[in-house]
């Protein structure tokens, strides 16, 4: 028993199956009782009655299944589920089961058995040892399963229940709010440097502090209005054929100057009235007036003749 790790005070469930004899079972139970002592308990249960038992959930530290030398049994998923139920969180399971080296309908391989334990909720599933079946166990197994192969062996596997109840839940605190980053620490300043750049109100009244008048910083040349010609760039107004042309987004005043020259040129190109009363209307126009038939207009306004007038003329 010492090699299994059972100690004094542990509660052990011993599960047996046919063809174990009563004497072998009694001897094994007494050996377990001597190990756990008066503070521990050993409960014996038949595999066929395990699912019908009224054992309290999470009440055993150990479950030992079919460890008797003359025992042989194929554990069903219901048996494994019941063993998980009665084990305490962190409890241990040690079982013996006959296996075959190849896939069979009624028998498991070692890999299939370990997978079944994991699917039942066990963890840390480990193969401990592998031995031959006794003649009695082999004969009983072939009678029960009908398997007649010669590759049957007995494997011992240990597993443990997780440190929490199967199906238990726990609330997880999640924070989806934006975390405010901690402000970066400002580097420490040299006290002498900090004092150099500090100026208090008392310092302003100190006779030792010389304050300069801002008007005294300007001389007579700074106060003179600049000549507009001096503000123009050297190439300002030069275009194709040395023709004056204002720059894009002109700010020196050349654009306004050229616009004024264009307006004056348009006025000078207008036909000159010989009588000076052409703009008053046909009643005041001469027979040869080019504005004859046109409506009255303001002096200096450019008159545009339409196509019908030009055709009639």
Specify Rg, calculated over alpha carbons.
Answer: 57 Å
How far apart are the first and last residues' alpha carbons, in Å? 135 Å
Secondary structure tally, helices: 10
Topology order in helix (H) and strand (E) letters = EHEEHEHEHEHHHHHH
Q: Tally of extended strands?
A: 6
Q: Biggest sheet, strands in spatial order?
A: 2-1-3-4-6-5
Average residue pLDDT = 80
* Bulk shape: elongated
Kindly describe this structure.
The chain has 313 residues and is an alpha/beta fold. Helix content is 27%, strand content 16%. It contains ten helices and six strands. The chain has helices at 22-36, 77-86, 110-119, 135-145, 191-196, 201-204, 220-223, 228-231, 254-268, 307-312, and strands spanning 11-16, 41-46, 60-65, 87-100, 123-131, 152-160. A six-stranded mixed sheet has the order 2-1-3-4-6-5. Strand 1, helix 1 and strand 2 (41-46) form a beta-alpha-beta unit. It is elongated and about 150 Å long. The protein starts with 10 loop residues before the first strand and ends with a helix.
List keywords for this structure.
313 residues; alpha/beta; 6-stranded mixed beta sheet; elongated
Helices and strands in order:
Layout: E1 11-16, H1 22-36, E2 41-46, E3 60-65, H2 77-86, E4 87-100, H3 110-119, E5 123-131, H4 135-145, E6 152-160, H5 191-196, H6 201-204, H7 220-223, H8 228-231, H9 254-268, H10 307-312
Parallel strand pairs: 1-2, 1-3, 3-4
Antiparallel strand pairs: 4-6, 5-6
Summary of the model, kept short:
With 313 residues, the chain is of the alpha/beta class.
């Amino acid at each position: 028993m010492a090699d299994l790790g059972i100690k004094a005070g542990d509660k052990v469930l011993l599960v047996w199956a046919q063809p174990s004899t009563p004497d072998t079972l009694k001897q094994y139970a007494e050996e377990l009782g001597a190990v756990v002592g008066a503070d521990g308990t050993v409960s014996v249960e038949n595999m066929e009655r395990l699912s019908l038992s009224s054992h309290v959930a999470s009440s055993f530290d150990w479950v030992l299944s079919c460890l008797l030398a003359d025992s042989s049994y194929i554990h069903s998923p219901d048996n494994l589920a019941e063993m998980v139920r009665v084990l305490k969180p962190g409890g241990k399971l040690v079982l013996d089961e006959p296996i075959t080296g190849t896939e069979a309908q009624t028998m498991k391989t070692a890999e299939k058995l370990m997978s079944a334990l994991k699917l039942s909720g066990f963890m840390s599933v480990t193969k401990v040892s592998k031995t031959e079946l006794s003649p009695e166990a082999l004969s009983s197994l072939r009678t029960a399963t009908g398997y007649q192969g010669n590759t049957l062996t007995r494997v011992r596997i240990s597993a443990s229940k997780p440190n929490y109840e199967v199906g238990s839940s726990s609330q997880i605190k999640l924070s989806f709010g934006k975390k405010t980053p901690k402000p970066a620490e400002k580097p420490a300043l040299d006290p002498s440097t900090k004092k150099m750049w500090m100026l208090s109100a008392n310092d302003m009244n100190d006779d030792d502090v010389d304050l300069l008048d801002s008007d005294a910083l300007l001389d007579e040349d700074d106060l003179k209005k600049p000549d507009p010609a001096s503000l123009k760039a050297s190439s300002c107004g030069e275009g194709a054929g040395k023709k004056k042309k204002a720059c894009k987004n002109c700010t020196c005043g050349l654009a306004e100057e050229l616009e004024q020259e264009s307006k004056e040129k348009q006025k000078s190109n207008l036909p000159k009235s010989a009588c000076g009363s052409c703009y008053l209307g046909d009643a005041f126009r001469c027979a040869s007036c080019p504005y004859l038939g046109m409506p009255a207009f303001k002096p200096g306004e450019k008159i545009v003749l339409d196509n019908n007038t030009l055709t009639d003329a």
